[in-house]
Amino acid sequence: MKRPGAMRNRHLFWGLPAVVLLAGLLGACTTAGGGAVGVQSQDGLDAKQRAQAERLYGQLQREASLHRDRKTLELAGNLLDYYPAFERNDEALSLAVEAADRLGDRPRARAFGDELLATRPTSPLVDKTLLRLSDLSLADADTFAAVTYLIRYHNRDPRRSTLGDGHPRSAPLIQRLSPEELEILARQEQERPLWSYLKFIQIRQYMDAGRFPEAEVAAAEVRAAGLQDQFAVSALDLVSGKGPADGNLPHRPTFGRVNMEQVGVLCPLTGRYAMLGNAFYDGALLAVEAANKELGRQFTPLVEDSGGDPVLAALASRRLASEDGCGALFGAMMSNPTAAVALVADIYGVPLVSPTATNDRIWELGDSVFQTNQTGVHEVRLLAQLATTVMLKHRFAILHENTPGGQRHAQVFKAEVEKFGGEVVSIETYNLADTDFRKAILAMKEERPEVIFTPATVDQMILLAPQLDFYKAGALVMGLSHWNSERLFDRTGAVLERAIFPNDLALFPTLWTGDFNAGWDGKKYPGEAKNLAFKSYQSMRLLLDTMHQSGATNRAQLQDALSRRLANRDILTKGPDSFASTVRVFRGDRAQPFPAGIFSEAWA
């Protein structure tokens, strides 16, 4: 498990020749006169060094403001390594955190943040950095690290991080930790404000798991501390049997009346992302209105402003799940707040539909989390089911890029094929930079597959498709929805004849697209907001349609219905015709609907 650390990473100097670096070092050590060392300031820099550092920092600020992130990191590295005592290096580190995050390099972003905490503990940027590191940790599904940063933030000023009832704002995340992780934190927090709360949660988890001897040991530590605050008392009451039997203790999830007509919507209605957040909500609201009209229902959205902040999003989702009793949660637009909401959703067992979060691992935070914009796995399952149950193919080969994403697609396809009685006879891989696929194609051909599944990109298929034809692979080719590309049609011509791929809106009925376009006010928002609103609309329609079609009367039933729908389990009962609107096939110079009629007689 990852743990937050304070070890300083070595900074990399991208693109600077060694001669330039050496000249910079020599220049920093001498004055214009050639040998005398200038008068040093409090930060250990003489006048010339300070001027050089200021100049470098000015360049850093400009590049950061333009979001030239690689250049920003290069300049930050130079400043930190050659002028480590420069008084504005905390600002340089903060800018480096944001630049690395925008580049998708969260480990490096976290390393820069940890360095700021370790080297500039009195900086006014420490609070901001602690919260940012917590966000980054949540995005990496590292709840322990996220909690550790939030506790450090709490300790700096407990009043701002404590709710009116005495509970910490980080409570939803703390509850996700194991008793062993809570023990680590409790040892670090002895004689600090949250120690008794951590012990209370630990003891409660021990009691829930039937680990009574360990609960007694933890309770003995609380007694020995002699504390009388509300959490110390509650912890001892738990062990003594005085705590309420229904578990209605501080911040324990309570499951009151659930209203399956209510959906809790979370998005940033204020702050930096307010424009996009309001478009997201308007898209969802438009979907609710359309669904109510079509289905004759009275679905009601309850909206909470996340402000784009994971902690605020977690607190808001707890209110929606517990106090308001929403049947489902929807949001929270961006990845970091959505990850926080996912943790709360898992605690309360309330389904969460995420239409726009780009972190494709949020679904791993709980069985009740559904990412409708991460359609790759959905498409893979759909193709496997089509090939085995409708087209009655039996022997399959898989050719995928040697990356985690490619491996995941291959694993899902193999499992789905085998589930329906098929056999994967060959699995071959290639690297991103490969242009020659001869060896992999011949290896597959030797096993005589009927179908080759390859989740390749358009650029990769432009190279791969002619080689499949040249080496006479002799199998039906299947791929993902991004093959629906004019460029791919133009570049490959007839060599992909009969290749099959899903419609890129396979999850959603085509009628919904027309409904959205008819109802969306294009004058209210700029163009970039429309796509976000459209995703929100489609996913909300999917959620409400699933609620209605399944007849779910509780959250567990809705979770099961969403799982079935997103895994295509229900499409099998409808036969070949159900694939006509969800699958495309290359015919001539364009993509056409899957010819379901050919297979209908065999299905009957």
Task: Explain what you see.
The protein is α/β, with parallel strands linked by helices. The chain is 52% helix and 10% strand. It is built from 24 helices and twelve strands. The strands form three sheets. Strands 2-1-3-4-5 form a five-stranded parallel sheet, with helices on both faces. Helix 3 (69-82) packs antiparallel against helix 4 and helix 22 (527-550) crosses helix 23 (555-566). The radius of gyration is 28 Å and the shape is globular.
Largest sheet: 5 strands, parallel
**What is the approximate shape?**
globular
Through-space gap between termini: 53 Å
Number of strands: 12
**Share in β-strands:** 5-15%
How many separate domains? 4
User: Any guess at the CATH architecture of the largest domain?
Assistant: 3-Layer(aba) Sandwich
Assign the CATH class of the largest domain: Alpha Beta
Report the CATH topology name of the largest domain: Rossmann fold
Overall mean pLDDT score? 84
Radius of gyration: 28 Å
Task: Extract low-pLDDT stretches.
Answer: 1-10, 12-40, 242-255
Structural class: alpha/beta
Helix content: 40-55%
Q: What count of helical segments does DSSP give?
A: 24
CATH H-level superfamily title of the largest domain: Response regulator
Spatial strand order of the main sheet:
2-1-3-4-5
Layout of SSEs?
Blueprint: H1 18-29, H2 47-65, H3 69-82, H4 89-102, H5 106-119, H6 126-139, H7 143-156, H8 171-174, H9 179-188, H10 195-208, H11 212-225, H12 230-240, E1 259-267, H13 274-295, E2 300-305, H14 310-323, E3 326-331, H15 335-348, E4 352-354, E5 369-371, H16 376-390, E6 395-401, H17 404-419, E7 423-430, H18 438-446, E8 451-453, H19 458-470, E9 476-478, H20 486-492, E10 500-502, H21 510-519, H22 527-550, H23 555-566, E11 583-587, E12 590-593, H24 597-603
Parallel strand pairs: 1-2, 1-3, 3-4, 4-5, 6-7, 6-8, 8-9
Antiparallel strand pairs: 10-11, 11-12
